[in-house]
TrEMBL record:
Residues 410-527 form the RCK N-terminal domain. One of its GO terms (molecular function) is antiporter activity. This is Sodium:proton exchanger. Pfam families: Na_H_Exchanger, TrkA_N. The chain crosses the membrane at residues 12-28, 35-54, 74-92, 101-121, 127-147, 159-184, 196-215, 251-270, 308-330. GO terms for cellular component: plasma membrane. It is a multi-pass membrane protein. InterPro entries: Cation/H_exchanger_TM (IPR006153), Na+/solute_symporter_sf (IPR038770), NAD(P)-bd_dom_sf (IPR036291), RCK_N (IPR003148). It comes from the Bacteria. It comes from Pontixanthobacter aestiaquae. It is found in: Membrane. Keywords: Antiport, Ion transport, Membrane, Potassium, Potassium transport, Transmembrane, Transmembrane helix, Transport. GO terms for biological process: potassium ion transport; proton transmembrane transport.
Amino acid sequence: MAGEIDTSSMGDALVILGAAGLVIPVFTRFRITPVIGFILIGVAVGPFGLGKLIYDIPWLSYVTITDPEALEPFAEFGIILLLFTIGLELSFKRLWQMRKLVFGLGALELLIIGTSLAIVLAMMGQYWTGAMALGLALAFSSTAIVLPISGTTSPVGRAALSMLLFEDIMIVPIIFILGALGPAAQDGGWEGLVTILWQGGLVVVALLVLGRIALPRLFAQAARTKSPELFLAASLLVVIGASLATSVVGLSPIVGAIIAGLLIAETEYHSEVEGIIEPFKGLALGIFLITVGMSIDLATIWDNLGSILTAVVLVLVFKAAVTGFLLRMMGARRSTAAETGILMASPSETTLIVLAAASAAALIQPGTAQFWQIVTAIGLTVTPLLARLGRVIARRVEPAPELEEIDHSTPPVIIIGIGRVGRLIAQMLDKHERPYLAVDSDADLIEYAKRKGYRATFGDAARGDAMNRLGMDRSPAVVLTMDEPVLAERLTRKLRKEYPDLLIVARARDTTHAAELYRAGASHAIPESLEASLQLSEAVLVDIGVAMGPVIASIHEKRDEYRAKIEQEGALDYKPQLRTSTLEN
């Protein structure tokens, strides 16, 4: 009847929202990741927790989840939004630069861990097809939990991202292979896999082509309306449409979500999209974590405590050791290898999917699947604790030099990035006795800079309140030196929004990038390719006999020409200053 309310669904929604309102502030206050809180809430309100008592205590139905299966679509949507936002943080160029890590390190990690675990399980009596299914399932690591902890820009984050991307790519082939190996598999199982792959390839190419053409126009139209609701609708349309397109042909919807994020990251609207999607992603991811907690049966764990804990410890230790060893063999520092290995040690939400596929294909018994599902749920629960343990061990195996005390009487200039350009700027500030603090998310660069005497500290400027902790509100200026156009533009826009009066000097790749940085709010954007080209021109003209005066005049004319171009492309009401007046005169 119209007007009736489904009290069961409303009660579940109330429990979820209440859990979010309780978990996030309480765990944030004690500086503990909310991941653990959401999982514990799932244990408490799920069918194996208070849900078992509702027949004896009816009022508990108001504070428990009455239909856990109904939450699964929302949990899956949370993972899709998470992968979409990861795509927003990447770029096609960065992804191409990571191809060796993704298909080298990622492939080795999945193959070696999966094969080794399969051999061990086969030796323990598991039939070889079931052992292979279990080995591959346990080899996966949690994208949903690991990446929010590690980020994607630090050495640990890049290593984790490369392995997790390969795992996400391999989800569908592995599930199809397991289906083909099942005793009830059709003869066309392998042909079905080939069909999925070529159809999926066509869909991916179509998404890339259509996305590059349509997305800038779509979001430009949404931006003209100045309606946040329309921007949100367009964002959800893109991510859901791309996910459905890949899932219709049999690929994982995760693939479509990542592609959608990558395409939007190439537009100037990515930061707006990221800000609008963030609250929804956090809530949906919380629902996923609650469903993980609801799958933990404390009574079963108690009855099989010894074997379950043994399995958890052995899986975690083995995966950490193999991942750390592979990273060391590929040249990673001891600290990076140790921290990444421990962080990636737990199984994944994807493990649960592969276990379900293996059980459906009759490769493993239902009891075996339930045992490893509990092991996986416990592994997911302890992942934040593994992250802390990894950081502690990383500092012990390779301690970094202590940062000398900072004189807080004069606020320092903040240099974001301590690479080649950042170190040169630090030297110039030192020469003129101006305090500075360099910030970088690359632990290797930080350690190198400290050993060379630079004042540097680890931090990811793109995440959380890192800038507030560094005293950005008192700093006279910030200098962006990274050679990552998308990240530089995003940081510029974020800093200008939070600190309207801050002097922001940014390194630009070329004049087009400089115009984008000016639109984002940069005070000065210096196109390095332009200045290098002009200085080379000056040197060759003078040395082949052209008089210095005309050469300098032509250099000024060319700089004025590009200054006007940047003014036009950046929609500025002033001509940008490409070099200081001292250098020009």
